[in-house]
Amino acid sequence: MEKATENKEITIEEKLRALYDLQLVASEIDKIKTLRGELPLEVQDLEDDIAGLETRIDKYKADIAHLDAEIAARKNEITESKSLTIKYKEQQDNVRNNREYDALSKEIEFKGLEIELAEKRIHEYTADVKIKKEEQQIASTTLSERKEDLKQKKAELDEIVSETKQEEEKLREKGKQIEAMIEPRLLTAFKRIRKNARNGLAVVYVQRDACGGCFNKIPAQRQLDIRLRKKIIVCEYCGRILVDSDLAGVGVVEQQ
Questions:
Q1: Distance from chain centroid for Cα 164
Q2: What's 233's domain CATH number?
């Protein structure tokens, strides 16, 4: 019951002031994130590159191992074919007729073709191994470079995070305290507007008779309503919550 009474005691002006204060805190946190720049994305990209290169290198290793096994198998075939060729030639010296001699000659010829084919395959596989090893070396060199880049980027990011961590934590704590003063429905609307706004501004003040977010002109009567602070008014063009410049303390606090 006490909480409900407290909520009733909060005026529209106080709600507007809380929303604007929350916007100032959110904008300060945005500045910290901007200070970090593209570093978080660059770190993520480098980590993805490294993972991809490691996968590629593993594939090269597997391909080379397979090619080496194929080369060994073809060498065994050559050894076996040569051994059989010697055997068939010896048998030719002891044949009983021309038909047996011709049959052995065909076997010798066939083994000769098998040897030629195996040697051709060995030549092809050896060339493939050379290419794969060169590509693996390039990938390994690139991997080393990416890892060094990642190390440097992470160090830069860690330094910036370390410098701004305490400030960001204070701002987030302050933001939570302000959020506790704002009713859930209004807070949800604030977060939705802020998420959809290009510059993260959900609450803006009227400047030069225009919305401080989209810079569209605001009618005089609507400006009067904003200055009266009797209701929450949003820009009919961009949907941002509008406050008057006095509430924003323009000249004391300048909204970017």
A1: 23
A2: 1.10.287.1490
Judge if 228 and 119 occupy the same domain.
no
Query: Once rounded to an integer, what is the mean pLDDT over residues 176-204?
Result: 93
**3 state DSSP class of 210:** strand
Question: Per DSSP, which regions of the chain are E strands?
Answer: 203-205, 233-234, 241-243
* Backbone dihedral angles phi then psi of residue 212, each to the nearest 5 degrees: -75, -5
**pLDDT tens sequence across 91-125:** 999 888 999 999 999 999 999 999 999 999 999 99
Specify the number of domains making up the chain.
Answer: 2
Check which CATH number belongs to the domain holding 59 and give it: 1.10.287
What is the distance of C-alpha 32 from the center of its chain?
20
Q: Which residues are CB-contacts of 181 (< 8 A; sequence separation ≥ 6)?
A: 10, 14, 18
d(CA 242, CA 166): 31
- Residue matched to tokens 């009733």: 8
User: Do 201 and 104 have their domain in common?
Assistant: no
Q: How far apart are the first and last CA of the chain?
A: 40
Please tell me the pTM assigned to this model: 0.57
Full residue range of the structural domain in which residue 212 is found: 2-35+183-248
Residue 178 inside a domain? The answer is: no
Q: Are residues 60 and 27 in the same domain?
A: no
**Could you tell me if residue 215 is left (phi over 0), alpha (psi between -120 and 50 degrees) or otherwise beta?**
left
